Every structure is written in structure tokens, then in C-alpha cells.
Amino acid sequence: MIDKISPSLDAAVAGIHDGATILIGGFGTAGMPSALIDALIAQGARELTIVNNNAGNGDTGLAALLKAGRVRKIICSFPRQADSHVFDALYRAGEIELELTPQGNLAERIRAAGAGIGGFFSPTGYGTALAEGKETRLIDGRHYVFESPIHADFALIKALRGDRWGNLVYRKTARNFGPVMAMAARCTIAQVSEVVGLGELDPETIVTPGIFVQRVVQQGA
Amino acid sequence: MQRLTRDQIAARVARDIPEGAYVNLGIGLPTMVAAHLPPERDIFLHSENGLLGMGPAPAKGEEDEDLINAGKQPVTLLAGGSYFHHADSFAMMRGGHLDICVLGAFQVSSRGDLANWHTGAPDAIPAVGGAMDLAIGAKRVFVMMEHQTRDGASKIVAQCSYPLTGVACVSRIYTDLAVLDVTPDGLAVREIVDDLSFEELERLTGVPLIHQPLAA
């Protein structure tokens, strides 16, 4: 019997190694898997490369992981926000590396990794500082920039419900990066508000099929 | 001259958004346009964090932290609205499915280059978000901004001095002084506020303009 449900948050983040690349879901705090991030902080992995849309809000969740000094590099689209003081201080002190990527390219680079695409030409960013040094191509009269896939060792995402086969549904705009991140990591770990029995999720509305998910854990476990 | 208020610029932009349009209103000034869209007109607002059919802000106490817009403010979903993931959301944009995108700007050049993501200050922490995707993603890109900086410098320029967001991507510019279209021949002035001559507008703008008002 296949059962992807982890008994605890600690068990869910077991095996995350130093130097790992981790996709972390969320747009701001919507969809951020804070329980998994807290478990990762307790687990202790260091020198991480983190991929997220932002670079932490306030002092909890991703910001707490940064504050704990576990992150070597962050790949994101929008680090600077009103409440990104943890990232701002690390960046100004030269203690974290930043790779800035336009948001749509970020999502597509993650999707490409999950879909087995070796990169793609995107019109976004052509002629800007963020395309400097990248290959460009003129296709049917339009300029494009080559963007590479973002593969990851782990993905930490948040969903509303999941079952023991790893099928997931999300809630409102908390879905954001969850489905593409689930595809792009060798091990995807989903924090869910509710674990449901097999067959309880309507197969017509499952957003992330279980093939993309290796571990599911109840939020308070 | 009668400079338009920000609300009046927003109302002017709203007049150009037809029924049935799929529209993204960028963060900042453009969000003011939503309040001026006539409720009887079906217009589909897109927010790049994954929703179509975005409604107004919820009543106090009804906020849902899982239902936010691109500016991370709480919003509502209209009947008929939908949620989707980030790659689909930007496919809507990059794939040319959005009709109109309204953006703020630091500068726009005569050929429609847009600078709105970074001042280029050496100590600034760069953040781009969806700005570059929005700039090249919609069928028409409207810029909504004050015509001049606080120091009186024109924000319409021969060449942007701030880092670019997109190249030759702007279709139309709405300011507190005028409405201008980016055309192959240069910037065509379609409307000017009361008590401002074309010559004076051109002087304040500092780049050559074409006087080509729209037929009323």
C-alpha cells in the first residue's frame, strides 16, 4: 500500500541536505508552507539555495529561515517589500546572493524543469539589464531571451487537501507557484490543511496529481 | 492650465476600456482605474498571482489571506471568476491573451520604451516582480503617470535614463496634461487639458510631438 502521508512535520523534512536547492511555494504569505519551513529550520540544513517569488515577509516563515543564516542564495522576482527587513539586511551586508528573475520567467523556468524542457526563449526582459549576457534570438520578427530551467532537490508547498497518493487541491490565490513547483523537484513535500481519504477528492478537480508529490503532511502534525 | 488629478487620469483611462476586455491593472496608480469602470460593463480584471474576475476590496472583517492581488492586498472574486497557477497566469500575459495592461512609469521614451522597475540607484535593492512580463505581454500597454517629476522634468523622454523594463512596448500614455499615442512617426498628441496649447505641451515635454487630436 502506498502511503505518502508523513507522520510529522519533522519526518516530512527528513533528508534535506546541506547545499540543497529548495523551491518554496507562496506569493508573499499566501501559500507559504510556514509549518514546513519551521520544521526545516529545526532540521538544520545549511547553505541552501531557495527559490520563491519573494524573499520573506516580517520575521516568520521564509524570513525566519533567512534570519537563521541557512540560505546562501535566493532566486526570486521581488525581494524588496515593505516588510523584507531580514533579507534587506543580509543583502546589504553581502551575506546572501540574489538572482533576480522576472516573475513570469521564474514560473516558466520552474515549469520547464518539471516538464523536461531544456530551456526556452522568452520575450520578457529583452533589451533590459536582466537579459545581459544571455543568448537572444529573433523569431518571426520578435526578440527573445534564452531562459534555463530551474531544477530542484526539494519543493515545499502548501495545499488545502491531500490524500495518501499525493493528490492535491489548493485554496484560492494560495495556489500560485504550488503546481509548477511540485513538478520541478525530485522530492515534493506538501503541507495540507486536511488529509482526506482516497477517492474523496473529485478527480475532475484535482490540480496536482500525486505523481508530482512524494510526501504529504498535515499542517499541525 | 487645468492639470488632471490622479482620479481624473484614472477615469480617463477607464473610458478606453471596452466591455469584454481582459485587463491587468499594475501595482500603484493603475489600481485606481478599477473604481472608475462602470459596473454595468463586463470587464475581466486579471491579477498575475492567479485570478481572473477580480472584484473590489472586501468589507472590513471579511478579508481572506488566501485571496489577494498582485500588490498583496485582500480582494474578492466576482461570480464567474477563476483561480489558476503562476505559469498559466503568465501564459495569459506572454501569450497575448490579455487585451490591455495599465502600468505606472518613471519614464517613457518617444519610441515607447518603458522604465518603471528600478531607479538605478546603486544602493537600491532591485525587485522586478511581474513588471517586465506585463510590459511585453498585453495587446495594448497603457501607461498612466504624471507628465513631470516633482522637479518639473519631463517623464516623457528621448531616451530613458532609468533601467528599461521593456523595449518599444508602450501603446498609449495618459498623463495629467495629455493623452499621447506611440506611433511609428513619433508621439501623437490625442488630447490636451484645457488652457494648455500644443506648443506649450511640447515645450514642457521636451521631445518633438505630433499634433493629431482624435475626432470628437
CATH class term of chain A: Alpha Beta
What's the arrangement of strands in the largest beta sheet of chain B? 4-3-2-1-5-8-10-11-12-13
Rg over C-alpha atoms of chain A, rounded to the nearest angstrom: 17 Å
CATH first level of chain B: which class? Alpha Beta
β-strand amount of chain B: 25-35%
**How far from one another are the termini of chain B?**
21 Å
Mean pLDDT of chain A: 97
Report the portion of residues of chain A in β strands.
Answer: 25-35%
Query: What is the helix content of chain B?
Result: 10-25%
Order of helices and strands of chain B: HEEEEHEEEHEEEEEHE
Number of helices of chain B: 4
Biggest interface pair, counts: A-B, 49 and 40 residues
The secondary-structure element order of chain A is HEHEHEHEHEEEEEHEE
Which structural class do you get from the secondary structure elements of chain A? Answer: alpha/beta
Radius of gyration of chain B: 17 Å
Q: Tell me the domain tally of chain B.
A: 1
Q: What separation lies between the terminal Cα atoms of chain A? A: 21 Å
